[in-house]
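Title: Prediction job returns without error message
Component: structure pipeline
Severity: low
Priority: P3
Assignee: unassigned

Description:
Job completed but the reporter wants confirmation the result is attached to the right record. Sequence as submitted:
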Amino acid sequence: MAYVLGVDTGGTYTDAVLLKDETEVVASAKALTTREDLAIGIGKAVKAVLETSGIGPEEIALASLSTTLATNALVEGQGGRAGLIYIGFRPRDLDAHGLSDALKGDPHLICAGGHDHAGMEAQPLDEDAITDFLQAHKDGVSGFAVAAQFATRNPAHEVRAASLVAAVTGCPVSASHQLSARLNGPKRAVTAVLNARLIGMIGQLIGRAEHVLQDLGIVAPMMVVRGDGALMSSTQARSRPIETILSGPAASIVGARWLTGAQHALVSDIGGTTTDIALLRDGKPAIDPGGAQVGPHRTMVEAVAMRTTGLGGDSEVQVIGEGLRGGLRLGPRRLLPVSLLAAHAPKVVHDALDAQLRAAVPGEHDGRFVRAICGRSREGLGPRDVALLDRIGEVVCPLADVIRVRIDFGALSRLVERGLVQISGVTPSDASHVLGTLAAWDASAATKALLLMARKRQGSGEVLAASADALARMIVDQLTDQTVSALLEAAFAEEDADFGDAPRALAHHALMQAGLRGHRGLVRLNTGLNLPVVGLGASALNYYPAVGASVGTEMILPSHADVANAIGAVVGRVTLRRSGSVTAPGDGRFRVHLEEGPVDLSDQDAALSLLETTLRREAGAQAQAAGADDVQINVTRDIRVAGVEAREVFIEAILTVEASGRPRVARD
């Protein structure tokens, strides 16, 4: 018998669950996620689940963590500053695949070097330029990314540049060929930049989490969930944090399958920041062939085919003032619910809300507050950013007290993106407190904040709502509508049939919407989903019955749906994949592209055998190092040939080796 512990850090709550022999839920617990130090919330949740279960910490044989930290950081534009060393590319290549947007003005160097498609050096590496760049920026970034042309065919220049980074700066470095074996240099560069940006954040989380578990007496090894639902060691996660994007959502899919046994269903997981939707087909989530996309970024990270939308229980409620109809829009930004902030700073929040309610004219910033997150680095901040941060100080402030001129909004946005400041305002969680379906925090503060928002004028001149209750119902109805749209988009994206338009356009098409309403005129229209939906998340029970009714399908809300991510975090498998290629640079020559450089052979079978043997050894060793037991190896070969004068000519082969096994646990 063995007890395993799963932990998930969400945008609002941190969940912990204890399983016996990976077959039975023994106990679960929740604690508020502490964004200033996620490990505090982890410790509270784990301590609570141990106390509830009566299980001693020494009996825990394995701990595993899933986290939305990397996902939310990319959705919200947060993370450290990263310097990019871009080798062998042209300046215009910065515009490919959103690389400039990913850099967000962070320093970069385009220098000579790189290889050609055959793995031969295109031009010598400009080490002097790299050294000068590193000297200039080593104190202004938290990590460096290195991407060289055709590094997947020969990584020598990336390896050398990475060694220079280590020698000159001591900063973490992300080399693109270590994150993906596929071609497409600019896209690999995006992945490497995002990885470098996340290293400090994820490394700090893992280190603090391990320390907290040890303080509680848990000495079991800790795993981390990857974006494809597999497990990786905490050491691997520190160096490759980009692979934890969609970690939380992927864990929810694994958890949904474990909880329901569903074979064919959409899984929709609503958290505080995002709603994550994926398709279970034959009991397995599909892997996104294009690489994980989170927010505006398309990466080369293998992850479940998941559609992530900035819609959650803590999404910002925005009033649409344009046009005669007006209305509401939720997200994509996450706010700290006013009801939650008031639970921590009741006097400041209530005094400000009461003063704003007494005012004859609604203010632009009514019902909004800011607070700084202590202990975060200020590196790279401009003078205006620092001045605003100092003005906020270490206390909760009404937003109107710190915004003095319009240009302050730019500084505030930058501080929020860096994770240095949180904004508090009206969210669906506040609406649920007003309606009485949620009673976790300060319902009185939520009511006051909604009253202030209800006074805002629409384009027609009418107030937005007559009461806090009326506005709360509008907010929940809007959440239902946006969730329905997200589900329909996900379903159309996975449809085999081609309807001639993009999933978003199809989901919002007038005929689709009329069919959802059951239009009966000269034409009878019925539309909806033709498969069940598994609803997960702490607030799913409140919001999702209406969603199921709207799309005309069964809404499955399983027991322990509120901790499905934590369950999925610990019932997955350790899986390592290694890919490589064999090309044909000339007739009768077969080039094997290895980490240490290309090797030419005269026999196709020998070349394929060498690559497979190398990949098997590397993947198996990495899986065992990650703590996998009973490792199983699976090999897939994609061999491409062309017909030339009635004979087949070898073009290229891509081999992928997958090593997989359950995490090693100690048993009585």
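Comment from assignee: result matches the submitted record. The radius of gyration is 26 Å.
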